[in-house]
Amino acid sequence: MRISPSAPWAAGLAVATLALIPATASAGSQRTAAPHADAAATTTATSVDAYYAAAEGKTGAALKTALHDIIKNQSKVTYDGVWNALKVTDQDPANPNNVILVYSGRSQSKSSNGGGANDWNREHVWAKSHGDFGTATGPGTDLHHLRPEDVTVNNTRGNKDFDMGGSPVAEAPGSFTDSNSFEPRDAVKGDVARMLLYMAVRYDGGDGFADLEVNDKVDNGTAPAIGRISVLKQWSRQDPPDAFEQRRNQVIFDTFQHNRNPFIDHPEWVDSIW
Prior knowledge:
Elements: H1 10-20, H2 27-51, H3 60-71, H4 79-89, E1 91-92, E2 95-100, E3 107-109, E4 120-124, E5 146-150, H5 151-157, E6 161-162, E7 167-168, E8 176-177, E9 181-183, H6 189-202, E10 213-214, E11 225-226, H7 229-238, H8 243-256, H9 262-265, H10 269-273
Parallel strand pairs: 6-9, 10-11
Antiparallel strand pairs: 1-2, 2-3, 4-5, 7-8, 8-9
């Protein structure tokens, strides 16, 4: 099934991007706009249902395969192009000049990207050494798992798997780390889980890249695997998709890759597959 952003239903999805951006108008204007917002939400729901039509009624391995066949049809971004893309996908809703750093939660100037200690850079949530895909166009540049993060915090996370516990991370309040795992702050625990599960569905050994899988251990090293799935499932349940994550998914679809993270649209599919 080839999904094209020019399909008849795709135009309606663009409406959701505006609907998901936090409102700054007065209470009165919000009340006036409410019917339009409701109509946009209805249009978006219908469009998203159409996108996943080939997965309807499936569970388990059959659902995973169907979702792979849907989301593998995407436009690709270069690694240099990721810089500008993240300035759009992760824009601070309260300040269009800034991005939100994923683990730190800090709002930081879009222009402060780079390699300095207090700059932000491109964090691969699925560590690129787990499958040895580096920054190759494909998994190494897939916006669904690339996020802005403080350079120092990015280095602290390194290529560790995800699990609970450890010592506090100084520049990422609410995050913890030990010798082999990293625990993000509560507000993005579900985001992290859904990004990793997207990668496990999207990259299945085709495209010349490794078959990425989630497992229930840490210390996966350079194997094309990351864990812990039991913890990731828990995080996905406790931190469901919020407006920021939903908007991000929509912007990636509308503007950049033209594919979606199914676990943001359907969090219940996490337990159906794993």
